[in-house]
Amino acid sequence: MDPSISVFNGMRMTGIDLVVSVPCINLKDILPMIDSDPSMIHVPVTREEEGVGICAGAYMGGKIPAMLMQNSGLGNSINALASLNKLFHIPLLLIMSHRGVEGETICAQVPMGQLTTSLLDALDIPYVVPTIDNVEETILHAWAIASEKGRPVAVLLEIGFWEAE
Amino acid sequence: MKRIDVISMIARKAEEKNSLIVCNIGLPSRELHHVKDRTGNFYMLGSMGLASSIGLGLSLSVPKRHIIAIDGDGSVLMNMGSLATIAHQRPENYLLVVIDNGTYGSTGDQPTATSLGTDLGAVARGAGVQEVHTADNENEIEHILKKIDRGVIVVRVDAGNASVPVIGLSPEEIIERFMAECARPSE
């Protein structure tokens, strides 16, 4: 199975109907799938923090929102994840290309890559690390946790995830 | 004309149109709460800069309701990319009102860039927003608010906060009643 199709299928299965995105090379095949799906509103944003705000508004308006992002954008979102999502108990699915881990070729990705799980822990944001075989159910499960607990949950898609066939 | 005067006009418009309001943190939310508290007001409390983004997400999700976001110059300067996103999404039910008093009013009136020459109306136009209106007196803003329901309004006001109490609602109370209002079928 193709990793991008599997992630997209997981999003569809979960009922995600509003997606904000900041691109990553590993997300490049998913973005056009969202664009061509009439059940999903796609809002490309300029910066991840903006996306957190849009997703919060969408959730209050009855949508199931997700943000497609690179882990570098986690740093751009931290105040909003705390003083908006945590304060008001607003759920959010962060579907994150996790760069800077095993297999990374760009040295600038390494510092945030190594810090990503510590930052999520510090923010009290649970995260899951799916494989190609379980990514669909994992995304569904991640939203179940997010909506039950009223908080963001991250789905970390590591470099190895995209190399699976 | 001060910020609270514009907030009063927006509150009247929201009553007439049954609009949902997303309001910027700090004194703007306190002033709105004081002028006209209603379940359709979302008082942001934290996340400075994101009122226009929350309003955008809401307007895309509740297309049958009219949405007004009340923002400030300091907050728009912190999240200027939001204007570009609003420009390319172009929701018809969304009005962003930027009340520009040239200062960070909730933190001791330090000057913002709009006091030093930055023109947020021009920024919004440059970002691609097609309907941008500007006002700097009471008659102008009253007239614009009467006839304009979408796009961006930038209204210049004098600095200064009204002396109003803090909001006596918990975050949970604010969001619960607001979401119930969002879910109510539109009239």
Task: Name the helix and strand elements of chain A from N-terminus to C-terminus, one letter apiece.
Answer: HEHEHEHEHEHEH
Our count of domains of chain B comes out at 1
Q: Major sheet of chain A: size, sense and barrel closure?
A: 6 strands, parallel
**Which word captures the global form of chain B?**
globular
Strand order of the largest sheet of chain B: 2-1-3-4-8-7
Query: Count the strands of chain B?
Result: 8
| Structure classification of chain A | alpha/beta
Radius of gyration of chain B: 15 Å
Which properties best describe this structure?
heterodimer; A: 165 residues; alpha/beta; Rossmann fold; six-stranded parallel β-sheet; 45% helix; globular; B: 187 residues; two-stranded antiparallel sheet; 8 strands; thiamine pyrophosphate binding (chain B); decarboxylase (chain B); TPP_enzyme_TPP-bd (chain B)
Any chance you could write out the topology, listing elements then pairs?
The complex is a heterodimer of chains A (about 160) and B (about 190).
Chain A: H1 3-14, E1 18-21, H2 30-35, E2 41-44, H3 48-60, E3 65-70, H4 78-88, E4 92-98, H5 110-122, E5 127-128, H6 135-149, E6 152-158, H7 159-162
Parallel strand pairs in A: 1-2, 1-3, 3-4, 4-6, 5-6
Helix pairs in contact in A: 1-6, 3-4
Chain B: H1 3-17, E1 20-23, H2 27-35, E2 41-43, H3 51-61, E3 67-72, H4 73-78, H5 81-89, E4 94-100, E5 103-104, E6 110-111, H6 120-127, E7 132-135, H7 138-147, E8 151-156, H8 171-183
Parallel strand pairs in B: 1-2, 1-3, 3-4, 4-8, 7-8
Antiparallel strand pairs in B: 5-6
Helix pairs in contact in B: 1-2, 1-7
